[in-house]
Design a protein that fits this description.
Blueprint: E1 6-11, E2 22-28, E3 37-42, E4 47-53, E5 65-71, E6 81-86, E7 92-98, E8 115-116, E9 129-134, E10 137-143, E11 159-160, H1 163-167, E12 179-190, E13 203-207, E14 222-226, E15 239-250, E16 253-266, E17 273-274, E18 292-295, E19 299-303, H2 307-310, E20 313-317, E21 330-331, H3 333-336, H4 341-352, E22 355-358, E23 390-391, E24 394-401, E25 404-409, E26 432-442, H5 467-484, E27 488-495, H6 509-521, E28 526-528, E29 542-549, E30 553-555, E31 562-564, E32 588-597, E33 603-610, H7 634-648, E34 660-665, H8 673-680, E35 684-685, E36 696-698, E37 701-703, E38 706-710, E39 718-723, E40 761-765, E41 773-777, E42 784-786, E43 791-795, E44 802-804, E45 811-813, E46 820-822, E47 829-831, E48 838-840, E49 847-849, E50 859-861
Parallel strand pairs: 7-8, 11-12, 14-16, 17-18, 21-37, 22-25, 26-27, 33-34, 41-43, 42-44, 43-45, 44-46, 45-47, 46-48, 47-49, 48-50
Antiparallel strand pairs: 1-2, 1-9, 2-5, 3-4, 3-6, 6-7, 9-10, 12-13, 12-15, 13-14, 15-16, 18-24, 19-20, 19-23, 20-22, 24-25, 26-40, 27-29, 28-29, 30-32, 31-32, 32-33, 34-38, 35-38, 36-37, 39-40
Length: about 850
């Protein structure tokens, strides 16, 4: 909704040398601007080029409002450039731009995309003109009114209008700037402070009485009335009110401003409109803007990233665009579709018609309490709100702001726990558990001014920014690791420091984590893999690492721990004409180690990886998003897959064992090139039904970024795999972070939930040697003896037996009695023994041992 303080006038360009450049701020009279700032952004790269601290008090010029001008020399001339208005707590109040939009890459607006004001100045703009916000719309250039409230013509006195006439059938009102009078019923009370029974949006929603509705499906019967702080009239739901004010479009919402309100008694509430999902088109919601609506369909929680900051979640309905086997949450397109431009565009339209934002009816940032938890109760450690939780017959008022239609509830929202919390991972079987675990930038070096940097060249730390946050993060990670009880754990997003104490803080993240885990589970239980150099990755503050349970596995004797970086590529015959692992915006170096199971002596090699994200774009050709769903940096991620496959083919650790397992955050969904390339090279995704799997949620869409890929000899030894959904399904309000004044009591370090933003992947293994022979012995009775897929020695002994060797190179001996022996696949040695036997070699090159003196009338088939 409309902020109390906003940018109202800008001048940045004129004919000749730019003079008198300024930015005007408008707000409530008497409010202090101390601590506010204007942050100026360069559209070329989205970086900050100037910051101006504001001060002073807003004067009372009219209607309890005033304007204050700040003269700023050197405001850039656009194409595009931007301005962020930032409050004393560092929150971005507005992020505007002129001559186009931009996405900020640093500063307080980092990651946010600006709103283009839609008008611009040029090098021919006369001196003395400016761009002005009038009645919610930017206009100009026109004669500057710096330091005075901007006004627009009303065309005479107020005219009585129906709300449907004000709303019109388009996205914007046809009466913007007109002074009108309406009479309607209050359906949502969101006035300032204690005056708002349903929340605080500095206003209220009204709707025409049923008898006054125009009957058109294209026009809304509802409207927002902005009456600011300390409203003169305290309304309530059910009041019949007469309102005179100016029609305004503010951030896409039609509203009346500069209002006079009078109560006319009470009235029967208008009928709530029924809106079914999925919509035919997301734009259809415009016809219900400002009205009370009910959605009869079951809606699923699909995004909660803004729950802690803005008190809002994204809901979605079931629909034909669902991935097979999933609920009504939104899925990443390339999780179950090959990248495709036309398909991706159509999919985005389809999921937009399934999506709606549920707000909390407040303008405040970082609400306390957070109202949206299960069962109509606030969020807490014990009363979470998980992805996949549901709500039925949701009712509220439909508003629009910040690019989204959103429901403002008029009663507590009764979320149902459709997705229960898993206290522990699903069993995966086997004798060993291998884990891929993204630990969300676990650093011992605090990200505070004056602290040393991290990794090579003292890069800025990427993790916690207080000791309290560090202790909270460590506690959560240890709790999760203890429950997982992995034998080999690949760690992703560790601070990149493994020796030498380069930054002088006396700590290494992986060592600290192992010590804390051993304090919990027993001294010496876990050790970490020494990579053999100070930095695993030569250019990043984060890297991968690995820890292991010393009673279960050990580093295999005679093998080495190896790292894949760009120095290895020439020997692999690879020349990509760009850095793949070394340098900014590249993949992180991979770490490979061969482990030996203590109980059996069996070995496997595990390669831990962290491919380039879909964020900042690598400068090499082909890395910009192609509009096909794969996002940025698909090309360099594919190069990492190609290099990894070629590298593992060389047996880099010297194990002489054929079993390889690729794990880690590959930052690609299941149908994207980096994954399908490895699958085509013989690796198999260990997760069942990868189309419906997920480990991460981004922009309200679920998919898999974290993988276990087993090669052809290992896949038969995988006993199971599971993603432990303790992170992707949980709101980040429950994690270690204390920024923005978060309530510390939301955190509980004894619970594993939201220990990271990625779900851990747990893989079960039952290792067997290709040379191991399984012995299966019969009795002196009739036996049915079944071999395995490995090498078997099966002896029937006495009795009439049926022996099936199965796959593998088997030695089959019937013994005495009339036996039926089937060799099955593989090169087998088959001995009938005494008795009349039927010997069938099956596929493969088989040897039959036959002794005419001791044997009967045998039948041999091959």
């Amino acid at each position: 909704m409309e902020p109390d303080i906003f940018i109202s006038e800008i001048h940045y360009d004129n004919q000749g040398t730019d003079v008198g450049e300024f930015i005007e701020i408008t707000g409530p009279a008497g409010i202090s601007l101390d601590g506010y700032s204007l942050v100026l952004y360069n559209g070329n790269g989205g970086t900050v080029y100037d910051t101006v601290a504001l001060s002073g008090t807003v004067p009372d010029e009219a209607n309890d409002q005033g304007a204050v001008t700040f003269n700023i020399a050197g405001i850039q001339n656009g194409a595009p450039d931007g301005i962020a208005l930032v409050d004393p707590s560092g929150n971005v109040v507005e992020f505007l731009s002129y001559e186009g939009t931009l996405t900020a890459t640093d500063g307080p607006a980092s990651g946010q995309t600006s709103t283009d004001i839609g008008v611009a100045e040029t090098s021919s703009t006369p001196i003395g003109q400016s761009l002005q916000l009038i009645n919610g719309s930017w206009t100009g250039p026109d004669t500057a009114t710096k330091g005075s409230l901007n006004t627009g013509g009303n065309g005479g006195g107020a005219e009585e209008k129906l709300i449907s006439e004000i709303q019109g059938s388009g996205a914007e009102s046809p009466l913007v700037g007109s002074e009108v009078t309406i009479e309607a019923v209050v359906v949502g009370d969101f006035q300032d402070g204690a005056s708002g029974a349903d929340g605080d949006l500095n206003g209220f929603f009204v709707q025409e009485e049923d008898a006054d509705a125009d009957g058109s499906a294209a026009t809304s019967e509802g409207l927002f009335i902005f009456d600011g702080s300390s409203p003169a009239v305290d309304v309530a739901v059910g009041d019949l009110v007469q309102v005179t004010g100016t029609v305004t479009e503010f951030n896409g919402l039609t509203e009346l401003t500069n209002v006079t309100v009078s109560q006319q008694g009470t009235a029967v509430l208008p009928t709530a409109a029924t809106v079914s999902f999925p919509l035919s088109d997301a734009a259809d919601l415009e016809a219900f803007e400002g009205m009370q609506i009910t959605i009869p369909d079951t809606l699923f929680v699909t995004e909660y990233f803004n729950l802690d900051r803005f008190g809002e979640v994204v809901l979605s309905s079931d629909g034909p665009s669902n991935a097979p086997g999933t609920d009504g949450r939104l899925d990443q397109y390339t999780q179950f579709n090959a990248p495709d431009q036309a398909g991706f565009t159509a999919y985005q339209d389809a999921i937009a018609a399934r999506r709606i934002v549920l707000d909390d009816g407040q303008t405040v940032q970082n609400p306390d309490p957070i109202l949206l938890g299960r069962g109509g109760e606030p969020l807490s450690t014990d009363n979470t709100l998980r992805g996949g939780d549901t709500v039925n017959n949701l009712t509220g008022v439909l508003s629009y702001s910040f690019g989204d239609y959103r429901i403002q509830p008029v009663a507590p929202v009764d979320f149902q726990p459709a997705n229960p919390r898993p206290a522990e991972p699903e069993p995966v079987g086997g004798d060993l558990k291998v884990v891929s675990f993204n630990v969300l930038n676990f650093f011992t070096t605090l990200d505070v001014a004056g602290n040393p940097g991290s990794g090579p060249n003292n890069l800025e730390p990427r993790g916690v920014d207080s000791q309290a946050e560090f202790e909270r993060q460590l506690q959560k990670l240890v709790t999760a690791l203890e429950i997982i009880d992995g034998d080999i754990v690949g760690l992703i997003e560790l601070e990149n420091e493994f020796g030498g104490d380069q930054n002088g803080d006396g700590q290494f993240a992986i060592d600290t984590l192992v010590d804390a885990l051993n304090d919990r589970v027993g001294a010496g239980t876990y050790a970490y893999v020494e990579p053999g150099r100070t930095f695993v990755d030569v250019s990043d503050a984060i890297s991968v690492g690995a820890i292991y349970k010393t009673t279960s596995v050990q580093l295999a004797l005679g093998t080495t721990v190896e790292i894949l970086d760009d120095s290895d590529l020439p020997a692999l015959g690879l020349n990509f004409d760009n850095a793949v692992f070394d340098g900014p915006s590249t993949n992180r170096a991979a770490l490979a180690a061969t482990f030996e199971e203590v109980a059996t002596g069996e070995q496997l090699t595990v390669a831990v990886n962290h491919f380039k994200s879909k964020g900042s774009v690598n400068s090499a050709p082909g890395n910009e998003a192609q509009g096909d769903g794969a996002g940025n940096n698909n090309a360099i991620r594919l190069q990492a897959s190609q290099a990894l496959d070629a590298w593992l083919d060389t047996d880099p650790t010297g194990s002489n064992d054929p079993d390889y397992l690729i794990i880690g955050d590959l930052n690609a969904y299941a149908q994207e090139d980096p994954i399908t390339y490895l699958e085509n090279e013989g690796y198999t995704n260990v997760v069942d039904n990868p189309e419906s799997a997920y480990s991460f949620v981004f922009d309200g869409q679920f998919g898999t970024l974290d993988y276990g890929l087993a090669n052809t000899t290992l896949i038969s030894q995988v006993t199971g795999a599971t993603e432990w959904h303790v992170n992707a399904d949980e709101p980040d309000a429950l994690d270690y972070n204390l920024d923005f004044g978060r309530d510390p009591s939301l955190f509980d370090g004894s619970m594993p939930y939201r220990n990271s933003d990625h779900d851990p992947l747990i893989i079960g293994l039952d290792l067997s040697s290709p040379n191991q022979i399984n012995e299966i012995m019969g009795t002196n009775q009739r036996d049915l003896l079944e071999g395995t897929d490995g090498a078997d020695r099966i002896e029937g002994r006495r009795g009439w037996d049926v022996i099936n060797g199965g796959a593998g190179e088997d030695s089959l001996l019937g013994g005495r009695g009339a036996d039926v022996i089937n060799g099955g696949d593989g090169d087998d040695i088959i001995t009938g023994g005494r008795g009349i036997d039927i010997l069938d070699g099956g596929a493969g090159r088989d040897i039959f041992v036959y002794d005419a003196v001791n044997e009967g009338l045998d039948v041999i088939r091959n």
